TrEMBL record:
Gene3D superfamilies, sorted: alpha/beta hydrolase
Pfam family, one: UPF0227
SUPFAM superfamilies: alpha/beta-Hydrolases
Name of protein: Esterase
InterPro entries the record matches: AB_hydrolase_fold (IPR029058), UPF0227/Esterase_YqiA (IPR008886)
């Protein structure tokens, strides 16, 4: 199974991360650089141009990458797994408006106009939501409440925003895909 992974805000695709190495047990994992400081339309167009979508069987993403996985999966008809996703990017990103430095020590400038261009996570696709209840950035219970009527939602006790339960989630992802 070919998996395409979408990283979160101020992060980067790192195929050597423990999370992606574990996800890779299901199949090869590709990824791309995503600039969440762009207005939404441009960000989505760039993601569509860069992704190997004709070969992708599962889109996965964490945080803002979970939001984008839902957007692209819904648009392209590809199953997705959204991990600790941002349900309301306008709120999630709002606290980062202005200049900042990402996790690779690269400067960025996030404008209010870019943040205002984001829309809520779509609810029309074929998705699975994975949450760590210990997420310190996005409220897992609020995410569950917002999405449980639209997607299967699996919560893991403890953990963190980066998601500490990928190994435990693998059989859940496999079962989800078998039902697609």
């Amino acid at each position: 199974m070919n998996i395409h992974y979408l990283h979160g805000f101020a992060s980067a695709f790192d195929p050597d991360s423990a999370k992606l190495q574990t996800l890779g047990k299901l199949g090869p994992v590709s990824g791309q650089a995503i600039d969440y400081t762009l207005p939404t339309g441009q960000l989505i167009d760039n993601a569509l141009e860069q992704g190997p979508w004709d070969r992708v069987e599962l889109i996965a993403g964490t945080s803002m990458g979970g939001w984008l996985a839902a957007v692209l999966g819904t648009r392209l008809g590809i199953p997705f797994v959204a991990i600790n996703p941002s349900v309301q990017p306008q709120r999630t990103l709002g606290k980062y408006i202005g200049p900042g430095v990402d996790f690779q020590n690269q400067p960025y400038e996030l404008t209010a106009a870019a943040v205002d261009s984001y829309f809520n996570l779509p609810t029309g696709g074929q998705g699975l939501i994975l949450l760590d209840e210990g997420d310190e950035v996005i409220d897992a219970q609020a995410t569950r409440a917002a999405l449980q009527d639209h997607y299967p939602v699996i919560c893991f006790p403890g953990g963190n925003h980066r998601f500490a339960h990928m190994e435990a989630a693998l059989p859940k992802i496999q079962a989800f895909l078998e039902g697609c």
